[in-house]
What we know:
The complex is a heterodimer.
Chain A: H1 8-11, E1 37-43, H2 47-50, H3 54-64, E2 69-75, H4 79-88, E3 106-110, H5 117-127, E4 142-146, E5 162-164, H6 172-185, H7 189-197, E6 202-203, E7 208-212, E8 218-223, E9 232-233, E10 261-264, E11 266-267, H8 277-281, E12 286-287, H9 290-304, E13 308-312, H10 322-333, E14 339-341, H11 349-358, E15 366-371, H12 375-380, H13 387-399, E16 404-411, H14 418-436, E17 448-455, H15 472-487, E18 495-499, H16 503-513, H17 519-527, H18 541-550, H19 555-559, E19 574-575, H20 580-591, H21 615-618
Parallel strand pairs in A: 1-2, 1-3, 3-4, 4-5, 9-19, 10-13, 13-14, 15-16, 16-17, 17-18
Antiparallel strand pairs in A: 5-6, 7-8, 11-12
Helix pairs in contact in A: 5-17, 6-7, 9-10, 10-11, 13-14, 14-15, 17-18
Chain B: E1 2-9, H1 18-31, E2 48-50, E3 59-68, H2 75-83, E4 90-97, H3 105-108, E5 109-118, H4 127-139, E6 144-148, E7 153-157, E8 162-168, E9 171-177, H5 186-196, E10 206-217, E11 220-223, E12 229-230
Parallel strand pairs in B: 3-10
Antiparallel strand pairs in B: 1-3, 1-4, 2-3, 4-12, 5-9, 5-10, 6-7, 8-9, 10-11
Amino acid sequence: MRKLALSDEILLTIEKPARYIGNEVNAVMKDKNAVDVSFVMCFPDVYEIGMSHLGIQILYDMFNRREDVYCDRVYSPWTDLDKIMREKDIPLFAVESQEPVKSFDFLGITIQYEMCYTNILQILDLSKIPLLSKDRTEEDPFVIGGGPCTYNPEPIADFFDLFYIGEGETQYYALIDLYKEHKKSGGCRKEFLEKAAELPGIYVPSFYETEYNEDGTIRRFYKTNPHAKDTIVKELVMDMTDTYYPEKPVVPYIKATQDRVVLEIQRGCIRGCRFCQAGMIYRPVRERKLEMLKERARTMLKNTGHEEISLSSLSSSDYSELKELVTFLIDEFKDQKINISLPSLRIDAFSLDVMSKVQDIRKSSLTFAPEAGSQRLRDVINKGLTEEVILNGAGMAFEGGWNRVKLYFMLGLPTETEEDIKGIAELSDKIARRYYEIPKDQRNGKVQIVASSSFFVPKPFTPFQWAKMCTKEEFLDRARIVNHACREQLNHKSIKYNWHEADVTVLEGVLARGDRRIAPVILKAYEKGCLYDAWSETFHNDLWMEAFEECSVDIAFYNNRERDVDEILPWDFIDTGVTKEFLKREWKNAKEEKVTPNCRQRCSGCGVMRFEGGICIENKN
Amino acid sequence: MKIRIKFRKYGVLKFIGHLDVMRYFQKALRRAEVDISFSGGFSPHPIMSFAAPLGVGLTSDGEYLDIEVNSTDSSKEMVKRLNAVMVEGMEIISYRKLPDKMKSAMSQVAAADYLLSFREGYEPQNWSEWVEAWERFLAQPSMVVWKKTKKSEQEVDIRPMVYQIGLNGQTIAMRVATGSAQNLKPEFLMEAFYQFAGMEWSSFTFQVHRVETYMEGEDGFVSLEEAGTVIEMD
């Protein structure tokens, strides 16, 4: 039997010991010493979040298909165990093999949101791997980062040996082969990094340097090693059907956030909302074939025993064979009492019909994401949802028996005026009024409208990457305007308004668009005790502010100025396929309140056509 | 059709709590394609109930769960099918048909056997003194202790809940009352003993292993498994 890294005393003292014991259904057990390459995959947040991530499940399955590779997993120890591990000097271990993370060849960290950066340092620290790449020796694993945040890897560049820019399915086997060869020939750490730097999609930050102007902007970003590439083109899978996708995902014992089979139906989004990073970096839209999805739905449900299946994509309604797929799922699995969960569906006659079949109308609510309160501002952000569409959709739903609506907005969008802000309250009220147009005897009680707003954070590789972000005070003022306006509405009793924390948004802004000068701040914040910053109960804004102060880093420089379109941005060396010219054009269109059609309506020449796949070639046929 | 399943829980699975064991079985029964019956209503759930929840940290050779199925294969086949979808740490021992009017395992449970062994580092320093105190403890006609309930704390005599008890080397074997009518946790008894003997108690002192779970039979206790019959098929 496996020996656990933690004693019974520890495991029976901490919360949810199942987070640390591995051995889950479908977990792959191999002898780490009998394979050529060992890889430990990390999601730097608590187990229940990490286990819900599809990307890791895909790569875990893909790696373990190879007999010469063992892929294990590790997650952030929760604060209770973190404390014990430090007190008792227990090194961080991977969950299946229970072996120290440091004993693996690679530590791969998926970086899904900026607020996990201190958790990355915790993983390294507890593993006894030097926090800075430059301090690592032959004894240490190669630390490789991937995921959406690596589209601006610069704030965390000092902590990583390599980054994999783009979708993992394409180059990891080549990287592993390269490492195998390297291990045989017995070269040093730097030699491997040089070879890896030549692989498509691989970025080795230590082979580059940045020079700054006196005003703090970047003068020059350049490579210092001949093996390094000038630009890193993102990797992407062109055939989404004939590719890696797990048949036996790992099923945790404790309830994970995503306690269901996840069927990723497509990647990318046709919509082109100007604030949305995912909508830009995952271009072009690539669909999986219906037959593959049907087959995977069957095998994954059978192999996991999950009682629910969920479709995953940025905008499921845009999947061209959605009707066929949803009808299949309902017909095939209804008798087995499998729940079907359909997030990100646009509200229309079809989706309402489907929803009434798969959910209890009395318990479910309608979700709209207008993102902005006025049509003017929705045109600025290129959110194609009109008031008419929302009111028609809501009306149809109300007539079908629904009486709860959730609305999602952003505050602090570029060009936003007080009128736009108040529009949030007014739109909420119009929806309520639409409800009360239904004769009283046909209504289902009172309507409940919950409007929520988050604060807008400009992200790299979006048309808003140059935008000025609001300060904390500006954000909160805007939320107060909405809150006040909601109370002035006719149906104010039916409207509930919630808004997001502003402190954490400010920080997210700096981490999202920062450069290499942010790394010391992250390090300092971590040393001061910052950890689990994405969790409101463990987020310490005061410590972060001290760290900025002590490192003499000015938040306003990163957040509160509009960047010139000719300014060199920290992430300019990455090529997502979407050209800078397109982003500039879109930034201009935004300011002129001009809408850009979606990819299915007309190609807008964003540049990803050169990948010769997905919707870009569909349209030509 | 009512089915009683007996299983073992061992190894690292001892860290999985009762609610998660329920979730585990819901999914395992689906993986094994057991034709389980569902409750009615808008969110139907599989009909299953467990005999006596096992605390986190305990292992067992005698756990039971009752389910209802619409159709079934032979016991032998079902055990095989279920074991094919188990993880290390869960093993199906038997799968038997219950008479239709049989009470649920939970309401039948009356007693359980346990083995307690010292965890490393918690062995008594002086074994003969330990044994001497142990004999004095057991010789008492009654063992009155404060027992916390959800609402209050009250004095109870736990002696009548101890049906059999003895030492086998440094392992303690006991049969104690279990179930909704009367329930004595082995750790609770041992804590009472450590207090009686003036020894320092830690909840980690013993690794507790449940050996079997019983119901009342015609002549004393019989295992819950006995209520069912093996399903044979041609």
